[in-house]
């Protein structure tokens, strides 16, 4: 990790219109006012903020932050708007130089909640942690029922590692917590998955720069893809696309399940669809294979070629012995893709899928190595 002894006392981070800087002694009154305003919303998750919280507590906290910064085990920042008003607090703490890890905590004053303050601020301090401190892992540990803070972690693109029992102590009780993690951003040229192509299509790992094209492709395709994929709705945002790209890149490194590749136009390299291996069952050598193609490029053989290309790679280069394609029984276009790719129809399973909260029947197809010869 980086030696932080020489970091300037005037250090300030920009967070899309917000200013993040270390607390100063003369911030005590403003910090006190922000905390007192927020007792109802913050105190259920941060027991130090209680009805007896005083101006002296704010002054002591600022002194502790300064001492932690000098030791190098805490970097705590106040969050300020353009006019200098205190909006909240966030910190990288429990910094472990040997492991290159830290915990990320945050809170936002009640009158500034629901405005994206926490997401912008946490994104900036995470970048500081990776780029300046040299961290390799940042954890966010949140009470399971603290839905607002969990949404912030998810918007940040943090990976949900799971629910851990007895992970936090609140009011003297050991409680489960949702644990999220952030890893340093990858360079897009550091491909986390295979690049495959034939005479028809090119499959490649997603890049962070693909998010706008992914977003546009899905919004073009609401009538076709949206009919069969509950997540594909007009509410699907550019931030959703960015988060999904980050998740699928992590999956190729063994973090998560959605090992997707972009189906790219051979001339422009723009995203025109997606094909993925997910729902892995390594103990029996099986995974699911899913796919979609944007509406303007459908019925051109793109999906069929992509399915065959990824299936051939998966069944030769991994321990997988069987791929399943599970398609809503009435989704005739996707069923034709499976059949043209050489998949074997094994039957129709009743209530096999959930679509917008309703169970639907699904056609079950399978691919094994002999099907692709």
From TrEMBL:
Domain N-acetyltransferase positions: 18-176, 201-370
Domain of life from the UniProt record: Bacteria
InterPro entries: Acyl_CoA_acyltransferase (IPR016181), GNAT_dom (IPR000182), Ribosomal_N-acetyltransferase (IPR051908)
PANTHER family: ACETYLTRANSFERASE, RIBOSOMAL-PROTEIN-SERINE ACETYLTRANSFERASE
Record-given protein name: GNAT N-acetyltransferase
């Amino acid at each position: 990790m980086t030696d932080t002894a020489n970091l300037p006392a005037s250090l300030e981070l920009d967070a899309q219109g917000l200013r993040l800087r270390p607390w100063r002694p003369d911030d005590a009154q403003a910090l006190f006012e922000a905390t007192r305003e927020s007792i109802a919303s913050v105190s259920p998750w941060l027991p130090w903020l209680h009805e007896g919280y005083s101006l002296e507590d704010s002054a002591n906290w600022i002194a502790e932050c300064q001492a932690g910064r000098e030791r190098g085990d805490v970097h705590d920042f106040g969050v300020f708007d353009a006019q200098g008003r205190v909006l909240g607090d966030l910190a990288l703490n429990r910094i472990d130089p040997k492991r290159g890890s830290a915990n990320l905590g945050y809170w936002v004053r009640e009158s500034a909640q629901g405005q994206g303050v926490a997401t912008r601020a946490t994104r900036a301090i995470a970048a500081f942690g990776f780029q300046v401190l040299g961290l390799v892992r940042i954890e966010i540990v949140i009470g399971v029922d603290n839905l607002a803070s969990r949404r912030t972690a998810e918007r940040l693109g943090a990976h949900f590692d799971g629910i851990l029992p007895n992970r936090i102590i609140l009011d003297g009780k050991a409680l489960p917590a949702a644990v999220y993690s952030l890893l340093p951003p990858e360079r897009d040229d550091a491909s986390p998955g295979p690049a495959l192509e034939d005479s028809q299509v090119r499959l490649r790992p997603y890049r962070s720069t693909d998010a706008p094209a992914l977003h546009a492709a899905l919004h073009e395709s609401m009538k076709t893809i949206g009919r069969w994929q509950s997540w594909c709705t007009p509410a699907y945002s550019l931030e959703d696309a960015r988060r999904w790209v980050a998740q699928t890149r992590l999956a190729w490194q063994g973090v998560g399940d959605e090992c997707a590749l972009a189906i790219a136009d051979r001339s422009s390299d723009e995203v025109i669809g997606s094909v993925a291996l997910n729902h892995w069952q390594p103990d029996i050598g099986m995974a699911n294979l899913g796919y979609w193609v944007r509406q303007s490029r459908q019925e051109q053989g793109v999906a069929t070629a992509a399915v065959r290309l990824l299936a051939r790679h998966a069944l030769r280069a991994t321990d997988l012995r069987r791929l399943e394609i599970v398609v809503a029984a009435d989704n005739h276009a996707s069923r034709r893709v499976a059949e043209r790719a050489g998949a074997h129809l094994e039957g129709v399973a009743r209530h096999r899928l959930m679509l917008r909260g309703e169970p639907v029947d699904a056609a079950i197809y399978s691919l094994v190595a002999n099907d692709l010869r």
